[in-house]
Amino acid sequence: MMATAPAPETLTDHTGRPRPSVDMPLTYEQARLGMAFHEAGHAVLSMAYGMHVITSEVMAWEPEPGRWAVTGKTAHQAQDTPAWRYAAQCAAGELAQVGYLMAYGLWTPERAAACAADHDRELAIDVLGQFGYRLGRTRAPEGGKSWGMVQGMARRKAGLLWREIRTVAHAMDERTALTGDEIAALTGLVNPPFKGGA
Asked: Alpha-carbon distance 152 to 49, whole Å?
């Protein structure tokens, strides 16, 4: 566990606003593994959908003596990714974290609610909107899809890839950070080459 918080930009959403902090009624070890599942959900679905995964990591620190906090980050290149697949990988983190609670006998309504990742939904809405796709929070706009529909897509794909998500989550919990190539080696998925230069 780090003694201090990660860089401020790690704790903000894509608009620069601080991501909400939620109390998760779990032990440190349980919460850290849950966050590893969240990031593994993003990483595995990204790779399965043809995105180049750069890194995926879980971060934990002690904001004050006797208290701890966890977050995570997955970096990928989503160039040429179909819009709804991009949105589904955004939804996959929260779904994988709730799946972890269910699979490990930790699920309660309060814990499931604490997994909410509105920043992932808002990122999907904004990114898709830039390309003319309409993603609604609670209902499907004309010609578009609702977040619930996208979650359904992600849930199906995550179910098919649960073994890979679980493998990556446990490796990430143990090592803290994984490269995309390490994730590919662990899962047998292909990490497409990075497009473009540095």
From this structure: 15
